[in-house]
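User: Sequence for DMT family transporter below. Tokens please.
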Amino acid sequence: MNTKKSPIPVAVLMLIGIIAISFSAIFIKWSSAPASVQAMYRLLFTSLLMAPFVRPYSGALSALRLKDWMLLTASGFMLALHFLLWMGSLEFTSVASSTMIMALEPVFIMIGSFILYRERSTVSAVAGLGVAIVGVVFIGWGDIGLSSDNLKGDLLSIFGTAAVAVHLMIGKKLVARMPSYLYSLVVFIIAGVVFALYNFGMGIAFFDYPPKEWGIFALLAIVPTVFGHILFNWLLQYTSATTVSMNILGEPVGASILAYALLGEQLTGLQWGGGLLVLGGLGCYLYMGSRKAARVEERKFIHPQELQTLPESAS
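Assistant: Structure tokens for DMT family transporter:
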């Protein structure tokens, strides 16, 4: 059980993190540079910000085996694929649609965990994810009414979400035997290299961009990555993973509000209905997940003789 107390209230830091990651789609929309270039510099600048603090982990870096490097490369490749597809989706569909679909990340993780690790979820949790999937269908149906490009953007977001789910599942395996900070830095560098090779192969310019674009590249690294994702990772030492994962619900809401205020984007009634189903379904899934985790934690403190007297429903 976690007993450490955060120097700043966790709720305040969570709010800062949600606002920060909500700006990611806004910055991408503001940029006219190719998505692969935006992602490359986002990862490069983030790696440069993290590099000065990696020295305490040098021993863990030298202890990595060939198998670890192969998994790190696979994780970095899937992260690059996620950025390429999701950031590309914003060229075709709205911020709200793309981020609401990306919130389906737990669905892909649940499916992958069952296939690879035989991890089972409760019926209530699966039902919640089923409701969320219906919500995505509503969003896509609403986008069809706008244009075929919007549907293309939705599909790119779905595939990008599947890619990041694979990235996270590989990460789950690796952080069990290496520091998460080191894992993040190495994967960011590998994904950045993947993008550099992609841009070179596609003949995409590396440097021919106006100052505004370089500013956006830097903002993508600092705001949603450092004050968003890295902040959430840091919060894991003060609160549960389930609590931190609630940012999955916060990002679509924050991004939609910012897109309305800063980009003038509006959704149809069908899309709003789909969005509510997505957030409600995921909320149910996360709530049931937290209850299951609490029961498992509680069982750790029950004496074996007492455990034998528990009814079957407690297992």
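Residues 306-315 have pLDDT under 50 and may be disordered.
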